[in-house]
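Annotated sample (chain length 68).
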Amino acid sequence: MKDTSHLTAIFDRLTRERQRLAEDPTNEHRKVWVEQAEREYQAELKFLGMDGTLPELSDDDLLKELGE
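Output written by the structure step:
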């Protein structure tokens, strides 16, 4: 099982920053912080292999994998 505690912490931070930005949408610093947190969240998803990308497999390779 993958340890997702860091992912959860990043998501919590991102949620808080988005909420604060919604309360003060003209705050340029907050916009940057939200963008940074979003990039960090996406990078962590990719690192954990949870970014939704699937390996490229031909139909024959897929059938071979399913048959094993």
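Annotation: Helices lie at 5-23, 28-47, 59-67.
Annotation: The longest helix spans residues 28-47.
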